[in-house]
Structures are given as structure tokens and as C-alpha cells.
Amino acid sequence: MTIWINHRLGIVGPREVLRVLRNRIGDWCAEVVINGQIQIEVLDYHPSVALMRLLRNEGTDIADEVLNRGAEGEDMRQGPKRAE
To answer: What is the pTM of this model?
Structure first.
């Protein structure tokens, strides 16, 4: 399986994705290892919850709050929603 990052970088293997995060302005980003160098790339899409779970199972660091918010920033947890 491969992961599409963006038009500049293209695809990488799941084990090359170290972390999925939201940057300060809300862009979805992936911290990846390319040719032994760690770099942060802005994704050109909103990753699905299924993709983030798959990456997490492969060892990618994805914070619970990022995963719980889902691709569109909505609370994806089951059960009653708490006030924030």
C-alpha cells in the first residue's frame, strides 16, 4: 500500500509517514522520511479516518485528538459530546 502526500512529493510507503498532524493554520500535514531526511509536507487532501487508523496501525504517530476530530474537524467519537 502507498500513501499519496501531495503533487510535489507524490506517494510514499506507510512506514515512511512518521506523524500526521494539523499545523497552526489548520492544514493537514504529514511528517515523512525521504532519503533519510525528515520533512513536513502539507497534504493536498483531508485524510479519512480510515486512512489515519491504517497509518496508526503501521506505527504513525497520530494524536487521539486529531483522530477523534476526523478529516473535516468533526468530533467522530461515539457517545455524548462534551462541551468544549
So the answer is: 0.76
DSSP assignment of 20-53 = EEE-TT--EEEEEEETTEEEEEE-SSPPPHHHHH
Whether the CB-CB separation of 28 and 45 falls below 8 Å is answered with: yes
Does position 22 have pLDDT exceeding 80, yes or no?
A: yes
Q: Would the CA dihedral through 16, 19, 20, 25 be positive or negative?
A: negative
- What is the C-alpha separation between 61 and 17, in angstroms, rounded? 9
Angle at 20 between CA 58 and CA 55, to 5 degrees: 20
| H or E segment and range at residue 56 | helix 49-57
